[in-house]
Design goal:
88 residues; three-stranded mixed β-sheet; 36% helix; YefM-like fold; alpha+beta; single chain
């Protein structure tokens, strides 16, 4: 599912900032410069939601003995064999 993004030139954004600020509360606004997307304006709520989803790195202490045993028993799918040379 692709998210709809409103695209607006930087000059237009400056002239109508209040309008696009309101739009960004509902959907992302891609700000372009010379026809290229440069930045995206999103609501503070959406920003905080995305930050909460940032990847968290776990240490061994975060896993139970059962978790570690299950990881040890796991096997990579056959289609990943093409990458085996990277761990040798």
């Amino acid at each position: 599912m692709e998210i709809a993004v409103v695209s607006v030139g930087a000059t237009t954004l400056v002239r109508k900032f209040g309008h696009y600020q309101d739009v960004a509360l509902r959907e992302p606004v891609a700000i372009t410069s010379n026809g290229r997307e440069r930045v995206v304006l999103i609501s503070a709520d959406e920003y905080h939601r995305l930050k909460r989803r940032d990847r968290r790195v776990l240490g061994l202490d975060d896993f139970s003995a059962d978790d570690i045993a299950a990881i040890g028993r796991s096997e990579a799918p056959a289609e990943t064999a093409q990458f085996d040379h990277e761990v040798k």
